[in-house]
């Protein structure tokens, strides 16, 4: 008897000796390790490119900024057109779509594509972050691991959450914030069944980061200024400011993307976007790349180093000029970031959000300290809390914002002002715009997973799985006799769709509609189907109706069966009983994750 392949023998051994729960723990640790490795690789490649270009920037006195973004975006264009042959996708929205409509299945190519396109974009000056691509690569790794080991959809979703937590944990060395991010953004249930795998992945990833990068931290500063109750009102002001800045950030993002849609050619988008970024970089160098150096200099109290070399260096002795330049960074970071995306670049929005928030927080503190009214607040604290306020507002992730800053500072001294500013920012943004950059498109289509179990179960359901096609179709010109012999006699259903020669639904007939006349032979040749048919209580649009809409149509119409139309053509019926059965089955699977 021939030996079974090694992987099949492993599956059999695993099923016999390792429980599903323990195997999930093992996979979560492996995912965390690999996601951390992907994040470290991404960071090192990008920093290598930036270091290689540093001397060129200094030698050219910033004039090379005009061409660097165009060159980097052109390399991304060449790679995506001739090598990967896949267009650049925004990481988190793409993953959320895969979770809701593709059962968490992500193409293998998404493992390495972000590791190439993101460093080329950021390393050559694109004003975006690396966290999104790190999560994209890690999520692709976890999805394909899940596929390799034949885990179910719920476990695959959890592993993708583990990859997201691992990427954040590796980049920021903040494992608690990483877990909360996965829960808030990917709408995972915070139960013990999900918490422990997230914790394992987060720890494995941060250990990977320590192994390869040592004690090197993204933010190097000594936290020494505690919260003072007299500054409470100023933190409220900062929270309100970050709330309105979050609205600006989000609206500017969609405005610029819509503006670039008018250019059909990718090369035209690339040239216009690249040159626009170059101009912004020349006048505001801190917009280059991710911006961690800018944040670190602000935290160290060195705003001159943070601003770098600009055409306005001779005016930097005036604090109000410095404030003006910082306001410029606050305003233009969102513009530079979105222009990078619109021009074809790859990256994330999390870190640009932090850069914009740090600039805004520092501006508010400097204005308070220089109004001449005798007030004195901590610029470092306001810089940190500005970052948290923008994260909470832009991403709708308030708990992530609070715990990320708490872990960055190494303690919880700023917990109270963090809660004040974050809650204010989140409330203002949430009331003004209910969606985020991540979720708008999916939310409008009804394809977004949320913490609402009912909504999420409906989102995960597929209309294809409940469509029934075993209905005998009738022609409107059929006689009653033909209908009875060719339709009723050959059908096991009591419902008949009436379609014309173009296969479009023109009506329906119920067996009850003809019960009283079906034995009256005098009507067999004189009565036509079109005389008996009537409109259905409602119609399901295959392309445009979400499962939530389908449920609502059944509820409002009190129908037991509704026809499904695709591009005007009849394709089948959905029955209420089958729909509810599928819903209950999906609910059981979802709640046992």
TrEMBL record:
Residues 467-526, 533-591 form the CBS domain. Keywords: CBS domain, Chloride, Chloride channel, Ion channel, Ion transport, Membrane, Transmembrane, Transmembrane helix, Transport. The keyword Transmembrane helix applies. It is found in: Membrane. The keyword Transferase does not apply. The chain crosses the membrane at residues 23-42, 62-80, 111-138, 158-183, 190-213, 233-255, 267-288, 319-343, 349-369, 381-405, 411-428. PANTHER family: CHLORIDE CHANNEL PROTEIN CLC-E. This is Chloride channel protein. It comes from Olleya marilimosa. The lineage of its organism: Bacteria, Pseudomonadati, Bacteroidota, Flavobacteriia, Flavobacteriales.
